[in-house]
Amino acid sequence: MTTEPHPLDGLVSRTTTDGIPTLYAPSSSNEITAGLFFQVGRADETLATAGITHLVEHLALHRLGLSDLHYNGATANTYTLFHVTGGEEEVVRYLNSVCAALRDLPMDRLETEKEILRTEAAGRGTGPNHQMPLWRYGARSYGLTSYNELGTWGLTADQVRHWAETRFTRDNAVLWITGEHVPDGLDLTLPHGTRLPAPAATSALPVTPAYIHGDDGHVVLTSIVRRSTAATVFAEVLGRALYQDLRQEGGYSYSAEADYSPRDAEYATVTAYADALPQKQDAVVGGFVDTLARLRAGRIEQSELDSVRAKMLKVYDVPDLGAASLPSYALSLLLGHRILAPEQHRAELNEVTVADLREVAREVWADALLQVPGRGVDWAGLTLAPQYSQDTVTGTRHASLEDEKVTLVIGAEGVSLLTPRGPVTVRYDATAAMTTRPDGARTLTGHDGFAVTVEPTLYKGVTAERTAALDAAVPPTAVVPLPAREPDHIPQPRKRQASARPAGTGTAHWGWTLALCAVGLPMVVWGLLSVIVTVEEVTAADPEWDVVVGIWILWLPLAAVTWAVHRARRRRRA
Questions:
Q1: Which stretches within 297-443 are classed as H helix?
Q2: Residues with Cβ < 8 Å from 238, sequence gap 6 or more?
């Protein structure tokens, strides 16, 4: 029986180990490096169970304890990797220990490992593109990397055990090892399962290209493109173009770069980044947009393409090429992406043209999400990503105790927060997670990433009965109980204060009022008397009409000026 030729024949050997597809290739190193991939990651989780894959990884490594052996685990969007470097016996011991733990996780460590994960997260910094997945995907699939691992609060032993039994299976794994052969003594027995596809991508963007506002000092672009050799070349060309335009010529940025990262079997993420001082932010944004426009127009020098191509071809000029390529080949096998032999990839690199790069540039721009500091970029043809919900729910209305213009609505279908700028709505049947506190606080996060926090202390009439209605309406699988807060951590409404009056203002006000009365009242009385006298003497001979007229001429302007001064002082105090 003959087998079909494989692109890796002659470079990488293939076999199975306890039912797990295995790749291996010789290496000149005295040590062995091995990796065990599973196709499960953060994108497979929900917001309410976020962290469950990471938790399984930690539990699987616990029994190894402290060791001089170089080993670790990693949880990414679409895969989990256990890797090790050491002698043959050490590698066998490590892989056997991992698989034994996956078959029987040490659940007595569950709460401890949860706390370790929360501690790890607290010390982990966030990069300038931390919010980009949330805005693109919402609170699902690939957007979960923007969120904390909420599952570390509420996951049960049964949930974690079931996740390991159904996701960490032999049919959902790939093993790779550097060496002439697969070491003896391996026991990688795992449950049967099915090869699970990468999760389907969700979307929170109604239209692209779009933009969002971000922190000062950073301009970030992400775009989803079809995986191709031309796209990998374009990312390198883009990085060089940004560096040339923004740093070398403009002098606006210190860092300007781009990256291509596979997302799943069919698509990859192109990320571009540039930093900026606050006073140079507008120039960096403008230069960033101009660079992309130049590439979309095909204004790419052939020499740029040739230089990038030469750099990428050098990856094949390394010793132990098969061993060096094992991780990428194993991941492609795991995800179901095509595998190219070195000569096939070289041929595709040599076929990439400037016209190909122009098409990729247009594909990047069409799906772009740009994060900018400061002002928007509508002028460049991008649309601001949705800042508010499109609809609201009806129900009981609860006025904010801090802002009379804000109202919380708790309805039968969801909750809405009504603000002067627009509503934010989360429907119960589209709730990714609802965190609960013993003091009655609830935070609902929708699949689209919008969130509404219900704080009984901040809204009028939010009673235990109303929060119980939320608990009954949200699917139980989306509920995440959080621990009680310290009393001083429970928010209290800010007291509304009357406008402060400057010191002495009241005294001055009454002083001027008395002064005006002192001047104006006699004049009014005198004027009235003069009118009476005038009426009585109107028929008398030789009336003192000139005196009456004179009094009125003097009094009227004086009264007008006095009133104007009084009004001006009141306006200054207001």
A1: 302-313, 321-335, 342-351, 354-366
A2: 258, 270, 272, 291, 292, 295, 361, 364
Cα–Cα dist 446/139, whole Å: 7
Mutual orientation of helices 52-62 and 88-103 as an angle, nearest 10°? 130
> One-letter amino acid identity for 250?
G
C-alpha distance from residue 304 to each of 94, 233, 254, 315, 356 (Å): 46, 10, 21, 18, 14
CB 493 within 8 A of CB 458: yes
* Sheet strand arrangement including 218-226: 256-262, 267-275, 218-226, 369-372, 210-213, 383-384
Strand pairing report for 369-372 and 210-213: parallel
CA distance 531 to 548: 8
CA-based nearest residue to 236, from 316, 331, 352: 352
Give CA 483 to chain center in angstroms. Answer: 25
Nearest alpha carbon to residue 478 among 43, 151, 201, 143: 151
CA pair distance 245, 181, nearest whole angstrom: 50
Tokens representing 482 are 């959080």
Residue with tokens 């708790």: 410
Distance CA 432, CA 544 (A): 91
SS percent in the chain: helix, strand, coil, step 5: 45, 20, 35
Tokens matching residue 141? 């699939």
Going residue by residue through the chain, which has 574 residues, state the pLDDT in tens, using 9 for 90 and above. 345 667 787 899 999 999 999 999 999 999 999 999 999 999 999 999 999 999 999 999 999 977 778 999 999 999 999 999 999 999 999 999 999 999 999 999 999 999 999 999 988 878 899 999 999 999 999 999 999 999 999 999 999 999 999 999 999 999 999 999 999 999 999 999 999 999 999 999 999 999 999 999 999 999 999 999 999 999 999 999 999 999 999 999 999 999 999 999 999 999 999 999 999 999 999 999 999 999 999 999 999 999 999 999 999 998 899 999 999 999 999 999 999 999 999 999 999 999 999 999 999 999 999 999 989 999 999 999 999 999 999 999 999 999 999 999 999 999 999 999 999 999 999 999 999 999 999 999 999 999 999 999 999 999 999 999 999 999 999 999 999 999 999 999 987 544 344 444 444 444 444 444 454 444 444 443 443 333 343 333 344 434 433 433 444 454 554 445 444 444 433 3
Neighbouring C-beta atoms of residue 509, cutoff 10 Å: 15
Per-residue DSSP letters for 227-288? --HHHHHHHHHHHHHHIIIIIIIS---S-EEEEEEE-SSSEEEEEEEEE--GGGHHHHHHHH
Beta bridge partners of 271: 222, 259
Contacts by 466-475, CB closer than 8 A, 24 or more apart: 466/396, 466/398, 466/410, 467/440, 467/442, 469/410, 470/410, 470/415, 470/434, 470/442, 470/444, 471/436, 471/442, 473/412, 473/428, 474/428, 474/431, 474/434, 474/444, 475/428, 475/429, 475/431
CA–CA separation, 396 and 319 (whole Å) = 70
The single-letter code of the amino acid at 182 is V
